[in-house]
Amino acid sequence: MRLTRLKRAGFAALVPAIVPVIVSVFALGLALPVLAQDAGGGLVSRGEYLARAGDCAACHTARDGKPMAGGYVFSMPMGKIVSSNITPSKRFGIGNWTEEQFARAVRKGVRPDGSHLYPAMPYPSYARITDADMKALYAYFRQVKPVDAAPSVKTSLKFPFNLPGMMMGWDLIFANSGPFKDDPKLDAQQNRGKYLVQGLAHCSTCHTPRNAFMATDNGKYLAGANVDGWEAPNLTSDKVSGLGGWSDAEIESYLKNGHAKGKAQAGGPMADAITHSLHYLSDQDIAAITAYLRTVPPIRTEGQSKPSWAVGKAQPVDWTKIEPGMVAADKPGYRATDNTDGAQLYNTACAACHGINGQGSDDGHYPTLTNNSAVGAPKPNNVVMAIVDGIHRKGADGMAVMPAFSASNQVIHDTLSDAQIASVANYVTATFGNGSAKLTAADIPQIEAGGAAPWLIRNAATLFWVGVAVAVIVILLIIAAVVMSRRRKSAAV
Ligand code: HEC
Ligand code: HEC
Ligand code: HEC
């Protein structure tokens, strides 16, 4: 399954670290040697639950690989980052790590040898994990089946991201929060929810936009962000842009099952989060997350005046234009897949499941496309990405599968070209949504790529050398100033 760029992403970071890098290479502190402390068996099942809440397996298991043996590849603008083997193998995994060393890696992103992880591993969120939960996680990871092999692929980053200590400055500035403490303004249930949302379940990693340094922008906490081409929507309590108009039951159904009838369904990275993590959570924890989300201060998405799920009365469709007469002598134009007529393509590729009027099936298994947050959203990304990637999800109430239609993801039946994907997406938003798409073929690969990498990341190599040049000039100027003042002094004597 394709995981998210963002998952890959927290990581990037780096550039602010450029100057500190030079310094930090000399300053790498080694982890304190600490006493090994094995936790008892009663903790293991709690640790397993917490590992699910943290979604560790999704990132630490390669496609068709052994559980937790690493090898999942995150392709990012700065290169390839490969997840580590975190089984208790002494040679290839974390078998020799003490609980303190484990905790430091998970919370601070620092290995026992002092090297820093890239935030493709969500340690900025895991920093919130309490000591008691860390103990349980450690106990669980002690007894996972050891895998005595290194991941078959190695991390390979482009210059300057491959310099040792690159992440140190970034960590100092952006990954400095401590374990979670109860917020006195919230009740016990809301605090439990906050702990999960900000910590193990790392919702912010995907739902909070990032600043130029690729750290989460906490001024826009949970206001929505792009992940691997998908838009992770606004989760604040705002009535128009956020979850303010959702009932508790709808939020709970979405988190547990992956869909809420007449509101939304989970594809892409959110489908992964539900399949591997959220659908395992207890009803109490799902209710706690919901209770906490209610308390998140509202942020309105600029220009939005109607909730995305409230958009859409299906426009009347003139089907005689598309299915002229339905008699044997008719040209099978309505089955054509070689043109870019959005209505015909919809009829051929989508209507069997979503209905000719986009109404879906009565039981909601095939969702309506009106009153659908993907179709009514300000941006058409999730309509496009659902067509490109399809949907594969396991929730608490079963599977949801929509086929992928792009040539790169589809092997079984006819595929749609970028031009066709653009025109069927335009048709879907115009007919069932707010008509916002207006896409051309060229937009599709751009949406898939999730937009260009931040300027700082693209220009990191140049910036690095500029930084070095400036540092050298400054040092030369200081030396010159010192020499001059000495000369002046000795001349005066
Ligand atoms: C979103 C993906 C993702 C998730 C979720 C994730 N990890 Fe990681 N983790 C990574 C990546 C990628 C690395 C390697 C980073 C690097 O090499 O800089 C890593 C590295 C680690 C390491 C360091 C091991 C080593 O020797 O390099 C530990 C320990 C670890 N993860 C534990 C966990 C635990 C425990 C969880 C669940 C609570 C977890 N991870 C969840 C992606 C993830
Ligand atoms: C790996 C990235 C990722 C993580 C982690 C994640 N989400 Fe999402 N979320 C998304 C994406 C992408 C969507 C859009 C899915 C779609 O429309 O198909 C989404 C959609 C949603 C929606 C539907 C909103 C709407 O208006 O349609 C809710 C609610 C939600 N997420 C809540 C959460 C909560 C709560 C957490 C943490 C417990 C979380 N998500 C963690 C990526 C993520
Ligand atoms: C084989 C049945 C099937 C076909 C064919 C199909 N879909 Fe879907 N579609 C689904 C299912 C199932 C879901 C997800 C339902 C859920 O998550 O509960 C879905 C979800 C969606 C969503 C919501 C995506 C999101 O992330 O929220 C959109 C938009 C969509 N389909 C559009 C289309 C379009 C456009 C086509 C034709 C190009 C199409 N579908 C073809 C079954 C289908």
Description:
- The chain contains 21 helices and 9 strands.
- It is mainly alpha-helical.
- The chain has a 3-stranded antiparallel sheet.
- α17 (381-389) crosses α18 (418-432).
- The N and C termini lie far apart (77 Å).
- The model is unreliable at 1-41 and 325-330 (pLDDT under 50).
- Bound molecules: heme C (3 copies).
Fraction in beta strands: 5-15%
Q: What order do the strands of the largest sheet run in, or round the barrel if closed? A: 1-2-3
How many domain modules? Answer: 3
Helix-strand sequence: HHHHEEHHHEHHHEEHEEHHHHHHEEHHHH
Bound molecules: heme C
Topology:
Blueprint: H1 5-9, H2 18-27, H3 44-53, H4 56-60, E1 73-76, E2 79-82, H5 99-108, H6 123-126, H7 131-142, E3 156-157, H8 168-174, H9 188-198, H10 203-207, E4 225-227, E5 230-232, H11 248-257, E6 259-260, E7 264-265, H12 268-276, H13 283-293, H14 319-322, H15 342-349, H16 351-354, H17 381-389, E8 391-395, E9 398-402, H18 418-432, H19 443-449, H20 455-458, H21 460-492
Antiparallel strand pairs: 1-2, 2-3, 4-5, 6-7, 8-9
Helix pairs in contact: 3-7, 9-13, 11-13, 15-18, 17-18
This protein binds heme C (3 copies).
